[in-house]
Structures are given as C-alpha cells and as structure tokens.
Task: inverse folding
C-alpha cells in the first residue's frame, strides 16, 4: 500500500425503536446497531458505500482502534479501504455495520432480552439476510443516505449486496458481489450442519443459555471454526503451505499434534473460540442456509433479480471451492438474461475462499477501477 | 446379480503368540485376528485373495450372518464376492480379516490389556499400515498361504494392498488398489484432525478410557462420521440427491433439522456412533495420516515401489475428491517408471469416494476381467 489507512477509528452506536419484523416471524421492538464510518459524506449524500460483513465479520472494517496496538486492532478489510485504496476514503463515505444477531455490539444473543432481563441466548429470533438489509436501510435513513452509491460484501456479505438490489432496488446504484453464491449447495449446508451440531451437542451449550451458566461451548465452536478453515482454503494452497510437514519434535506416533496442518487448525480454532459467540455462529450459518432469493420466483434467479436497478460487479476466485466461480457465473448469467449492467471478474488466486480478504493486486485493481467509474 | 452370494457365513478367530513389533515402537505379545473365508483353498494354495478393509470396515466382507435377517447382516462388499461375481468364489478362496486395532473381534482398544486386566483404551499402541500387513502375513502362514493370488482393497484397504507389494514382494502376485492414494494430502489430514478433535474433546472421552466409565464419546464419533460422509460423497451427487430440499414440516426457521441433507447426516452419524468404537476411529485415521511408503525413499514413490514383483490393477472414480483420480495416477506413474505391469481404470461414477463399494457394472466388469486372467 502506497499510503496509510484511515487511522484511528471508533465505533458508534445507534438505537432503533421502530419494531423490526423478521422473516422468521419474530419481532425486535428495540435494537441497537454498532457501526463505523470512514471518509466524509458529501452534500447530496451520493458517495456512501455500505460494506456488509460475512460469517465472522463485524463493523470494524478499516483503521485501528488502539494506537498502541495498530497491527492487532486493524479492521478486517483494512487493505481495501483508505485514502488512495480501492474504496477510496478521499472520495467515498464508507459505512461498516455489525449485523443484528452479531456479537460485536449490535443487538444479538448476548444482549439482554427485555422480557426477562437475561441474555437472549437461544431465544434470540432467527435472522435472515433480508432482515439485515431492512436494518441497514433504517441505518441509512438515520445517516441521511437515501441511496447507496454502492453496497459491497464478500461471501455472506455479497449475498446481502445481492439482496439489496431486490429489496430496495431504488436505493442502491451499484452492487459489488464478491466470492458469493445465489444460495448454498447441499454440501455447503452439510458443512454448516456439522459445525452447528458440534456447538449444539457440546455439553456447555446448555440449549443456548450458556451465559447463565457462566460458560461457553468452546469445544464446539473450536471444531466449527477448524472445519470452516478447511473450506476457506484451497487444497493446493494447503498442500503447498503445510503438505505433510511434521512439527518439530513430532514422530511420537500418537494423537498429539504431529503435522503442521493440525497445529494451524488448532491455533485458528482456539483463537476463534476465545472471542466469538456460539449463538451468533449458529444464527449466521442458518442465515446462509436459508438465503435463496430465487425461491419466491420458483427457483428462477433471473426473474428474482428482474426488479434490480443497480449495476453489478461480480467477482470470483479460481480456487474458491466454497463458493466457486461457477456459482458466481450463475448470478452473472441470471443478470444478463434481463440485460442488467454486469461486469464479471474471475481472479486467478491460490487462496481459495479467503482470497476475497487478500491484498491481491489484480483483484484490487478491478475493484478500484470499477469504483473509480462511479459517478457521484 | 444373476446368482446368489456366499450364503450364511461365520467368523473364525485365530490367536497369535509371537510378539508383533509395531512401527510405533510398541509390541503386542499376544493378539487375536478375526476373519472369514469364502470359497475353497486349492491344493497348492494358489487361489487365495486377501481383502483389506478401510476405515470402518471389518472381516465380514460377504454373505450374511443371520438367516432371519439376511439384508441387514450382509457383508460390506457382498456385491463383489460370490459365485459368478467379480471375486468368484467358485474359483478363488477369499479371506476377509479385521485388522488389529479394530472393534470387531480382533485385538484392539476394547480388548483387555494383559498388564492390568482392563480394556486397553488409549493405551493401545498406535498401529501403522505396515503392522497390519505383517499381521496379515502371519495369518496367511497359518492358513497355509505362502503367496496371495491377489491382495485387494479400497481406500485405506488399497493402501494395504500397495504396502504388501513393498513389504512382501514375493508373497503377492497381484495388487488391486482401488480408490486409494500414495499418502494423504494436507486437506485429508485436516479433515481427519477435525474428526479426531471432535472425539478427543468430547467430555465422555475420558482420555480414551471411557469403557471404565461405562460411557462412550458418541457426540464426537457422530460428528466425525457426519464429516466423513461429506467427504465420501460427490458434491453433484449430494446436490442431486438432497439439493436444498426441505424436510416435511420444515419452515420453522430454527436450528432443528430443516434440510434433507441434515436429516441424512444425522441419521448416518447416530447409526455409526451406536456401533463403532471411538478409539478405533482415532487409530484408523492416524494410520491413514502416517501412511507414506515413499517417505523412506525421500518422497520418490517409484523408488519405493521398485522392489514390487506384483502386477497391479489401479482403479479410481471420476467424482472421488477424497482420493481423486489424480492421486491414483501418481501410483500408476510411479509404477510405470520402473516398468511394472500395471493396468489402470478410471471409472465414470457419480458416487464420489463411496463408488468403490457400489455395484457399478463397468467397475465390476473391470475387476472381473482382471481377476479372470489371473493364472492359478
């Protein structure tokens, strides 16, 4: 990166008192959204970009939150947001938001249930992608943003961008749908199911009310994350990085860590289980499972997307086997059927699904060029 | 199948008192092997075929064990063994054996440790593929079989067949290596690692001594099997069979079973956890991880296989992503380098890794033709 990022940032909180009716039938009468912004909203509020997060993401997209600990407190997509970066904060006003059901400050399973004053836990209503979009629209209202210049996200975040074009077609000029899919395959759901079952059958889950027992189903969450990591990485990348390399001191022929790949997965699993909330993990994976905008159109994605007015940039990565290029092309083909304006880039990358988070020159150049051409 | 199978069968048991030194450094002073045989050994014992089992297999390969419950007690590879079937019991004498460390009668973690009279549990020594081959060779000695007409297996069973050609080159005339690989990739090991961690971190694992607590880490074993099933099936097959189909009564937007694929995985996981032993699962997956016959030759598989005298049939399946055709071709190419006699068939099948167990006409015809040409 040729220039610095957005520097020190701080989260903001906004309270909402208009009931939010959820796809699941539940209602949230009050909820908070935690968000961050970077750059300056222009006079006619035409330069705002919303960044939607994926399974384990949150509102802290860019910059750092601790000047004494910059590297460790950088946002999860810092490499793409900042002055002179593809999401150029000299030009755009960027909004990152923690979705409802999350565990980073917005109302979620860890929040107190107003009916009994205890954490919601498993009683928190299931949230769908469209619910997040509605909540994000209300945040936009309060920020004075009638129409987003763009909504952008990777993976589950890309699904939110796609949903925006259907639910609020007049409020989004561009959708950047990165490493996403129009719905999950049976195999995708199967991996999510194993992850959820690991959490739900952990004795420390306590039917989702573990907060009251002052515990956390860390075993299950750790397994879920380990499994997730396998699907985020490309097989060849894993082979190159870890191969069959033994750990120093290995060779005991036992069940301790013997191979480097095991050490990596345990580290990732332990770290994640230490900071993420298990109920949020359940809820986010279920939102993924249910996402299927074509369903109301009898499975016809082109028909479901017919109402969209936005222009699209769809990006996939060659070695992504979680949401493969084939799945992105389904979106592109559906959009082309009714002559939507869609650009598509298939980026050669060794990094599997995780590629969407990487500082890849070609990928970033594609995003930068697309956004540079947006008229404000 | 045009004709019936081998009919009612019964397992036999053989006790061994010559210490077996294991790759891990452990020693088994006494051990039992449980096995079955089908067909008749000819006068010069030249018609014997050994079938090696995979992760969850055992000695009961063919026929049934309960005349009142034939379908439910059929052997796991019954479709390929019997009079007129590819492994023709009118011609061959077939031996199925439960490997050491197994949970179907041969000495394993459930057996009593002679030093303290309690089940071995986690103290059972780790067993490598080569140890199984040595034990199988001793069984052959006792059965009067100096040289196998063939050793055959799928998956981990195929690895045993491959190992036979290196360890006892003069005792095997043909190796049938089906849906196997010369070693595990980092991704293969990663999936095994998640499965093992699910078992080991289950509170009912009790450091591998759960027998003494009259319990079993069924949660972990269930997760391990669910995950295994994802890797045994092909993605397209899963999409075709389950897709995004909801269960009858689904639509509750919750964490209960909503999709057919979840129902399938839970059923498979529950069933397996009810009959398989968790310590055996750990041990078998570790044997897979460690298998790497090329290692002693500095990673040169061709060099490692140079000593082989057997002829080879290598079979892979197009949609197998656990041990893909590419991995089988590594074996074929290594064999061709030093002019070994090798036939290779890449079978078009929708059934992923599980294809090796299926009654596929082309696949069975290839195996039948190969075996028909074996001179006795």
Result:
């Amino acid at each position: 990166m040729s220039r610095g990022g957005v520097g020190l940032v701080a989260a903001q909180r906004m309270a909402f008192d208009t009931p939010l009716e959820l796809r699941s039938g539940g209602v949230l009468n009050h909820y908070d959204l935690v968000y961050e912004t970077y750059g300056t909203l222009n006079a006619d509020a035409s330069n705002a970009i919303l960044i939607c997060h994926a399974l384990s993401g949150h509102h802290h997209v860019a910059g750092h939150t601790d000047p004494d600990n910059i590297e460790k407190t950088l946002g999860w997509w810092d490499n793409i947001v900042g002055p002179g970066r593809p999401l150029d904060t000299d030009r755009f006003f960027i909004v990152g938001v923690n979705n409802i059901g999350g565990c980073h400050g917005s109302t979620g399973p860890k929040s107190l249930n107003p009916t009994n004053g205890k954490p919601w836990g498993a009683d928190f209503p299931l949230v769908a992608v469209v619910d997040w979009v509605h909540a994000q629209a209300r945040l936009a209202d309060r920020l004075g943003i009638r129409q987003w210049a763009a909504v952008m996200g990777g993976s589950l975040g890309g699904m939110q961008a796609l949903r925006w074009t259907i639910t609020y077609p007049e409020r989004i000029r561009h959708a950047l749908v990165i490493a996403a899919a129009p719905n999950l395959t049976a195999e995708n759901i199967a991996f999510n199911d194993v992850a959820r079952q690991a959490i739900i059958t952990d004795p420390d889950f306590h039917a989702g009310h573990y907060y009251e027992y002052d515990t956390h189903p860390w075993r299950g969450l750790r397994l879920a994350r380990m499994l997730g990591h396998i699907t985020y990485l490309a097989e060849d990348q894993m082979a190159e990085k870890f191969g069959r390399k033994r750990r120093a001191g290995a060779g005991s022929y036992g069940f301790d860590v013997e191979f480097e790949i095991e050490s990596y997965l345990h580290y990732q699993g332990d770290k994640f289980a230490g900071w993420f909330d298990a109920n949020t993990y359940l809820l986010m994976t279920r939102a993924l499972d249910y996402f299927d905008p074509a369903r109301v159109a009898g499975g016809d994605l082109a028909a479901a997307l017919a109402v969209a007015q936005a222009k699209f940039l769809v990006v996939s990565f060659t070695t992504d086997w979680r949401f493969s290029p084939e799945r992105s092309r389904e979106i592109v083909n559906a959009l082309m059927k009714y002559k939507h304006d869609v650009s598509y880039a298939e980026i050669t990358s060794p990094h599997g699904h995780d590629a969407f988070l990487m500082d890849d020159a070609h990928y970033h150049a594609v995003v930068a060029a697309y956004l540079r051409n947006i008229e404000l």
Remarks:
- The radius of gyration of chain A is 20 Å.
- DSSP finds ten helices and twelve strands in chain A.
